[in-house]
What does this fold into?
Amino acid sequence: MDKLTLKNGKFIDPSGREVLLRGVNLSGSTKVPPDEPTQTANNFSRHREVSFVGRPFPRNQAREHFERLRHWGFNCLRFLTTWEAIEHTGPGQYDTEYLDYFADMVSLAGEYGFYVFIDPHQDVWSRMTGGDGAPGWTLEAVGFDISKLDLSEAAITMQRRYPDYGRMVWINNYSRLACRTMFTLFFAGDKYAPQIKIAGASAQSFLQNAFINSIAQIAMRIKDMPHVLGYGAMNEPSGGFLGLDSLESLSGFPHSGFVLTPAESIFIGSGFTRTLQKSELNGFIAMPTDGEVVVNPMGISAYKSPEHDIWRKVGIYAVDKKGNPYITRDFYFKGSTFLDDGLVPFMRNFITKIRSIHSGATLFVESDPTHVHGLELNAMEWGGVVNASHWYDNMTLLSKQFNGEVALDIKNLAIVEGRDDVAKMFKETIADYVQISQEKMGGAPTLVGEFGLPFDMNDKHGYKTGDFSMHELALSMYYDAMDANLAHTTLWNYTPDNSNRWGDNWNEEDLSIFSNDQRANPKDINSGGRAIKGFSRPYVMTSGGSLGAMRFDWQSGVFVADIRFAKNPAPTLIYIPQLWYPNGVDVVVSSGEWEMSPDRNHQVLRWTGASAGNAQITIMPKKGN
It folds into this structure.
C-alpha cells in the first residue's frame, strides 16, 4: 500500500490526493485472553501464564474477517493490543510468539488495503482492577495483592461478582483505590510517591519505561510497513488522584452503590471497614439515597502487608488511637493537572522512543473523555499528530435505550429533545472536536477514535425480533455528524467472537457490528453484520481535489459530494455499497466522467477528468426494472 503523509491537516497519498479514513476498532475482545472472558470466574492466579495469541482472531479466520470489513467499505483499522499481551510474564520478558502473531496480522491487514494505527488499549488500568491493559505484575510490584483487590473493595471485577454485576459497573473502578493509585504512580509517582520504588527505580519511571518499551517491541516489527500510520500513546488514560482539590470531596466519574470520596477509597482498600451512605445513579449524577451500607466488613487490605500500604507510607493518612483512619494531607494533590503534569510529558517520552524506531510515525492523541476540551499541544512542534479523541452518545451508551428523540448534551449537561435538535447537537459536538484540532493542536486532522452504540439496547429488541432499524437510525445519525465535519473515524467495534449472550466478552459490553449469532449464512459475506446499512454507507475514500462537503440522505439513498479540483486531477474514488444500491446507480457529475471499478466487489466509483474549479457529484439509486 501507498504511504500516507500529513499535510495541512490532511492525509495525503503519493498522488497528492486527500484520503478520508473510515475505519473500525479491531477488536473488543482483544482486551482479554481467548480463554479468559470476564464472565468466567477468575482469581487471576495464572496472570503470568496467559497468551493473547489469537486476538483479534485466529490466523485461519483472519482473511475472512478482513475481507468482510473491506467489503463493508472500511479502509482503516484502529488495531488493539494491550501491555499485558506483550509483557505478562514479568518486566522485560516479552511474549515473542504473540508479537510475531500480531505483526503478521498487521501485515495481512495491509494486503487487504487497510491503513492501520496501533492502540495500546487499557480501561481502568488492568483486568485485575476490573478492566484491561496492564500486566498483573505492575500491581504486585508496588505492593498490591491481586487476590485481595476485589475482596477489599479496592476494585470491582465481573470475574468475581458475576452474576451480581450490573450495566457499566466497570467504570466505578475509576473511583476505587487500585485504579486511582496505579495511574497516580504511573503519571506522577516521582512527585507524589517518591518512596515507592520498583527494582530500585521510582515507580513512575519504571512503569512508564516498561510500558513504552513493550510497545516498542511492536514498533520494531512493523516499522517498515507503509500502511502503518502510527500509534496511540494509551487508550483513555486516567489521572488517578492527580489534580484533586480535596481528598474528602466527591470527584471524577459518578460512583453507584454508595457515596465514595477519594479519601474513603483509600481507607476501604487499605483494610478499614466503613459505613457509607447509599447512592444511586440518576442519569449521570450519583444521588445519595436513604440508608447506609457497610463496605469491606471483613477489613481486608488490598496490600501484601501493612508495610506496603502506599498512601500511609507517603503520609496522606494516619490512624488514631481507636484505630480509625483520618486524612492528614487533604490537599496533597492540589495544584497540578493531569494533562500538563502527567499525560503530556508521558506522551512526549512515548513518541520520542517510538520514533527512534519507527521514523515519522504519527501520534494519535487522546485523553480521558472528560478532558477532551482541555488537551492542547502544537502539532508543528510535536511532528505528525492526529486528534483521536472519543465521542459517545452517552445517554444511549449508559442507559442502553435509543429512539432518536432524546439525547444528552454532555458539554452543557442539558437534555436535548426532538430528532432534528438531537441531530444538530451531534453535529455541533463533532464540530467542537474539529475546532479543538484547529485551535489547540495546530490544525491537526480530527479522527474520532471511538464512537458506537450498544447492540443490546432497547431491551435486546434486535435480538428478539431481528429488527435493527433503531440501530441503523442511531448509526446513521452518528455518521451524519461525522460527514458534516469531514471527520475521520474508527467505529467501536468489530468483535469476531461476539455473541448475543455475552456481547464482546468484556464486562457485558456489546458494541460489535458483527456477531456469530446473526450469522445465518456463512457463505454470505454480510451475514453476521448488525445494522449494516447504518455504518456501510457511501463516502469519498480518495479525493483528487479538496473535499469541501459530502452528505448522504439515508432515507432516499442520495449521496452528494463537493470537491474543488486543480488542473489534471488524479482519480477520485467513492465507496458505493451494494446494500444501498442493489440495482446500481444513476450519477450526475458537473464535469468529467465516471465508471464503476471492480475494487471491493464492484463497490467503488471512479471519477476522472473533472475540470478545474468547484465540482459536484450526485449519486442516486437506480430504480429496479
